[in-house]
Amino acid sequence: MLVSVILLYIAYTLQNRRILASEAERVDYPRISVIPSLYIDIGSNVTIQCQGTKQEDKFILYKNGAPLIEGPLVGQTANFYLQDARKTDAGNYFCMRKSDARITNHKTITVKGADDTVQIWALPSTNISVGGNLTILCQRAEQGDTFVLYKDEDIVSEQEPAGGIAQFHLYHVQAKNAGIYYCLRKSSQSKVKFSNQIHVTIEGADDTVQIWALPSTNISVGGNLTILCQRAEQGDTFVLYKDEDIVSEQEPAGAIAQFHIYHVQPKDTGPYYCLRKSSQSDFELSDQIDIIIEGADDTVQIWALPSTNISVGGNLTILCQRAEQGDTFVLYKDEDIVSEQEPAGAIAQFHIYHVQPKDTGPYYCLRKSSQSDFELSDQIDIIIEGTGNEVSRQNTDYTISNTVRLALAGLLLTVTILLATENCHTKKSQLQNEELSHYHYNIYSIQC
């Protein structure tokens, strides 16, 4: 009994420590504040405060993604002063704590009276790793302007934002994205103004194998997933792995291999990575991404191949699936049973060959388990494109053609019989008129 009490006390103490540690970690994130306001008049003073919990910490203040100044804590606050604010002080600010590299939220300071100044900055920073996502922002105090983003002297993109900030997103950046960027503002009064320049640096070697997932690493049961593998050079072979098993292999025409996984199920959850094989027999692995399939395991899925829209006369396959095996599936159209199947695996395939307009309608699956449980899938609407008149008209044409052929054959046979009969009667008359030379013939031997 005493041992049980001691064990319970120890477990309670450890649990409290975990809770306290979690609370401490949660409240230990640094914070940023701007005094007196995010909107300041030109020539005024502003204080940016970075707040932490440890006095020995130091903070770095960033402006538009680039480090601006470093300062120590006084108490639990590091104060950064912007005196006699100028147009160039407008921008996006955040603090980074040096001890653990944690950053605060972002604060955008607007300097009033600097309406004609075009600001540019990069998030999360002007220094970004290969494969990361970069956002370049162009801002002006007034709305309704058009912004053009330039890299070196080439146009990257053009945008007319709903507000005063245009956001240009660069996904999965590569070494070629490094360079000098700036914004051009075009107003409705045909005025043109340029921002300052920022220098974007892409960190990481060009031969790094990148991997990412579209639309996301988190996807719902039944959705479609694409995993992409990329390297800067072309001509490589990519192998996609899940855990330690090969999923697929591909030699793309370009530098990106796209691996499609349709109608994902919980079994598709797991870590994925790419292996690159070059023509020089070099091998290189990408980082790992974790795919999470969201949705209950007992959901009955239904889908159609090749599509829910299919032409008259085509072949259609409707598939019903659940994560477990051993169930019976019943396919319904409207309220009528189409077919029933107990598949060997977890997927039942119902084939409908040479579909006709009558096959149009809503279809759904009913799952019957060995425990007498029932569950319905969602409904899919099958659309048969084409009226089917082409087939009927073709059959009608064949019938008319055959009738004409039979009529012509009958007419030809009748004419042949009439000609043969006439020829026979002519010969009989000739024989009756011959008295001497044909006396030994019996004219009645001629039968017509």
TrEMBL record:
Keyword Lipid metabolism found: no
- Family annotation (InterPro entries): Ig-like_dom (IPR007110), Ig-like_dom_sf (IPR036179), Ig-like_fold (IPR013783), Ig-like_Receptors_ImmuneReg (IPR050412), Ig_sub (IPR003599), Ig_sub2 (IPR003598)
Q: Which UniProt keywords apply?
A: Disulfide bond, Glycoprotein, Immunoglobulin domain, Repeat
In this protein, which residues make up the domain named Ig-like? Answer: 30-110
**Record keywords: Disulfide bond included?**
yes
| PANTHER family from the UniProt entry | IMMUNOGLOBULIN SUPERFAMILY MEMBER 1 ISOFORM X1, MHC CLASS I NK CELL RECEPTOR
Q: What is this protein called?
A: Ig-like receptor 1
